[in-house]
Amino acid sequence: MAEKTRYSDAELEEFRAIIMEKLELAQRDYDRLKSSIMNKDGNDTDDTSPTYKVLEEGANTLSKEETLTTFRIVAVGLIIWYLAKIVKQNYKTGYIVCISLILAGAIGNIIDSVFYGVVFNESTHSTIASFVPVGEGYSEWLHGKVVDMFYFPIIETNWPEWIPGIGGEHFIFFSPIFNFADAAISCGIVALLLFYGKYLNKNIHPSAEEIKG
Fold it and tell me: Which of 3, 46, 132, 193 is deepest in the core (most CB within 10 A)?
């Protein structure tokens, strides 16, 4: 029977120190990734679309902001191509307006993403962002944050005390914070679904004959 290797107390302590160091590094990487995914460092009024929060902050490729901005630019290019196509084919004016609203909102968000971080300083809860010389902003090109500025809570009250579970808690009806670009995109999509939904349901894309004027 092979003799079992016995380690000295000094060797065991060295192994323990190495393991603790690796665990500490792993915890640090986990906390950094978790913070990136949850966007904890962003302002309350910054755009925080959850669709794009799965990108790793420490990646050697494009950063989260650059990837999102690049995606928006590509999407706008496709929308412009599609809009030019339907205009030439004499689609209904209402349908063209819906697509135009979506395009306008997307372009507005791109302008914020590309230029905002370069020509504005960063806003806080107590100060409003102001113009600064190009290059002296809070971030770099393509790293700007889409800023939301409208907040219209329709109802703000407290739940009655007698309601089980939520009695006494604060309640706000319609609490989203948004901007003009968000409003344009939302209105365009809602109008598209309300007035042209039956066409969109047919193989996703309506036929030209159905929605031409």
Answer: 46
Asked whether 103 and 83 are in contact (CB, 8 A), the reply is yes
Rg (CA), the chain: 26
Cβ-contact 77, 61 below 8 angstroms: no
Alpha-carbon torsion angle 134, 140, 143, 148, nearest 10: -40
HSE-CB at 124 with a 13 A cutoff on CA atoms is 2
Exactly one of 41, 44, 46, 182 is catalytic; which is it? 182
Q: How far is 87 from 56, CA to CA, in rounded Å?
A: 40
- Read off the pLDDT of residues 140-153 as tens digits, 9 standing for 90 and up: 777 777 777 788 88
CA–CA gap between residue 213 and residue 198 (Å, rounded): 16
Q: Which two tokens mark 14?
A: 């060295």
Task: Please state, in angstroms and rounded to a whole number, the distance separating the CA atoms of residues 113 and 121.
Answer: 14
Active site annotation includes 148: yes
- The closest alpha carbon to 149, from 41, 46, 69, 72, belongs to 46
Is 157:171 a contact under the CB 8 Å cutoff?
yes
Q: Is 97 exposed, middle or buried, given 0-12, 13-18 or 19+ CB atoms closer than 10 A?
A: middle
28-35: average pLDDT: 66
pLDDT digits (tens, 9 = 90+) for 77-90: 999 999 998 899 88
Q: Spot the catalytic one: 9, 46, 47, 148.
A: 148
Note if 29 is an active site residue: no
